[in-house]
Amino acid sequence: MTQTPQKTGLTAAERQYPLPPSRLDVSVYRDPDRYRAEIEAIFHRSWFPVHPSSDLPTARDFLTWDQLGQSVVITRLDDGSVAAWHNVCQHRGARLVDGSGHCGRARFTCPWHGFVYDLEGAVSSVPLRESFDEDALRGLRSPAVRVREWGGWIWLTLSGAAPPLEDYLGEIGRQLAGYGLEGFSTRFRTSVRLKVNWKIVMDAFNETWHVPFTHRDTLAGMVMWRDAVIRLASPHSWMTLPIRGFTQRAAPSADHRESHLCHYLVFPNTIFSCFPTHLQMWSAWPVSVDETLLCAYEVVGPPPAGRTEEEWQRHNERDWRQFLDVLGEDSEVINNIATVAGSLGFRHSMLNTAESRLTAFHREVAERIGEEEPA
Ligand code: FES
Ligand SMILES: [Fe+2]
After folding, report:
1. Which residues form the Rieske domain (predicted)?
2. Do 127 and 98 lie in a common domain?
């Protein structure tokens, strides 16, 4: 696939940066009521990649996902599929499962009064059963959570009404499918707490023109940030970035995924930053109105032709160290924003056309919480 403009009749500048400048009131980052509305209207209704599939390699493996004030148990069933259910006992609300591991007996026992749950979250045994109302126990289970495996990741949504995953991903799913991510493996991971609203974190990763300033000694030498081309795929967005010394050597007709760094936002909180042979993926999880947990992964494909596994591993290690340097530079700027987050001297952001993805993102957020436009 070659790069094509989104609409006809656009100027070159509009094709690169599709939206006009906009303004954003600081309350979108600071208002606790708005934060709660975002959790409910956006995070309780979206799909998220929550773990690499390889974290559940064999039947009866389990893990937990704890974000957004929710806890979900994810299990590998004997038929190889995955199940997910809320990690809360239906008797009196105890937490059922901690951490991850292998559950050879395929049963989880509540640590409080011993209700037993199977791998799919159904109650299979109740102590003092005769002392309960039998009707209340019939078919009892911890509520299921919708879960899918796709592209090497376990995805879940807390909503029964969200569209099927492929429909939710739309164009971004079609883009990611071209990488063959099922054949990739997760080699490194890290997490970092950032003392700002989750949208400040997302904003920080959805434009490139901070690169020559924040990443002068790292990323600036690697990507041709001025030549980023932005595309909107509501509610998601993406951009292509030429890689210095690499993209120029690619045939002009080459698929952009084979010649560029392609940077995909899966709305609301996940970035897939894809090089032709490997990618970094990260998600920004809201902790509170002014705190975010960023979880990042390095995911690599098989060694390219002519490289041994050892050479490829060394390359991946070097690449991960570079990513950590870049992430450290972004984190420093972001955490310094926290020191002025309550400033009386700042009332609104000014977004330029190079920040079109931010404008589109904030419009999506506003629309989903029932605002006409960002405040
Ligand atoms: S809360 Fe789980 S058995 Fe009582
Ligand atoms: Fe950055």
Report:
1. 47-156
2. yes
Q: Which ligand is closest to the CA of 329, given by its number?
A: 2
* Pairwise CA distance, residues 95 & 90, whole Å: 10
Total structural domains within the chain? 2
Residues 291 and 361 in one domain: yes
Asked whether residue 3 is assigned to any structural domain, the reply reads no
**113 CB within 6 A, ligand 1:** yes
Domain identity same for 262 and 132: no
Q: Is this complex's ipTM strictly greater than 0.90?
A: yes
Burial label, 106 (beta-carbon count in 10 A; 0-12, 13-18, 19+): middle
pLDDT in tens, the chain (375 residues): 334 445 557 777 778 999 999 999 999 999 999 999 999 999 999 999 999 999 999 999 999 999 999 999 999 999 999 999 999 999 999 999 999 999 999 999 999 999 999 999 999 999 999 999 999 999 999 999 999 999 999 999 999 999 999 999 999 999 999 999 999 999 999 999 999 999 999 999 999 999 999 999 999 999 999 999 999 999 999 999 999 988 888 887 888 988 899 999 999 999 999 998 899 999 999 999 999 999 999 999 999 889 999 999 999 999 999 999 999 999 999 999 999 988 999 999 999 999 999 999 999 999 999 997 655
111 lines ligand 1 (CB under 6 A): no
CA–CA separation, 16 and 103 (whole Å): 51
Question: Residue 137 belongs to a domain with what CATH number?
Answer: 2.102.10.10
Final residue of a structural domain among 98, 119, 149: 149
Residue 311, beta-bridge partner list: none
Nearest CA to ligand 1 atom 4: 113
Q: How many Å apart are CA 165 and CA 129, to the nearest integer? A: 39
Tell me the ligand closest to 334's alpha carbon. Answer: 2
Q: Which atom of ligand 1 is nearest to the CA of 110?
A: 2
Atom index in ligand 1 nearest the CA of residue 89 equals 2
Q: How many residues does the chain have?
A: 375
Nearest to 207 by CA among 333, 321, 28: 333
Domain that holds residue 139: 47-149
Point out the ligand nearest to the CA of residue 113.
Answer: 1
Tell me if 289 CB under 6 Å of ligand 1. Answer: no
Please give the distance, rounded to the nearest whole angstrom, from the Cα atom of residue 91 to the centre of ligand 1. Answer: 5
CATH code of 267's domain: 3.90.380.10
Q: Are residues 67 and 145 in the same domain?
A: yes
Look at residue 229 and tell me if it is in a domain: yes
Residues flanking ion ligand 2, Cβ below 5 Å: 330
